[in-house]
Amino acid sequence: MRYQGGCHCGKISFSVTGDIDKLLDCNCSLCSKRGGLLWFVGRDKFELKSPKADELPTYRFNTRKIAHHFCDVCGCSPFSEASAPDGTPMTAINVRCLEGVDLGAYEITRYDGRNH
Ligand SMILES: [Zn+2]
């Protein structure tokens, strides 16, 4: 399955390929405030159309390892970049920013990010 996603105003636009298998409802201090519902995919499954990730505003906190990109026009945070424990580049998609996804159709796993 190929999904289209992006921020509200359209400045950030991307596609991602894969099957939504696991959704994480993270309770960390950032996700709880911005309403993140996360699907982790390998970076090779993620295609950013505009603009380049290193040209986007980026927020880091705590260990600063995860790059939380956001739109400086509309304020949405549609994806973040991180690495898996083995070093594999990963993208965390905020599935609320994907088009045509019925969030009620998926099992949502609570992730205790506040204590990790
Ligand atoms: Zn935007």
From TrEMBL:
Record's signal peptide: none
Pfam families: GFA
Keywords: Metal-binding, Zinc
Coiled coil, from the record: none
InterPro entries given in the database record: CENP-V-like (IPR052355), CENP-V/GFA (IPR006913), Mss4-like_sf (IPR011057)
Highest taxon listed in the record's lineage: Bacteria
Domain CENP-V/GFA: 3-112
GO molecular function: carbon-sulfur lyase activity; metal ion binding
PROSITE patterns in UniProt: CENP_V_GFA
Family: Belongs to the Gfa family.
Protein name listed in UniProt: GFA family protein
Originating organism: Pseudomonas cavernae
Lineage: Bacteria, Pseudomonadati, Pseudomonadota, Gammaproteobacteria, Pseudomonadales
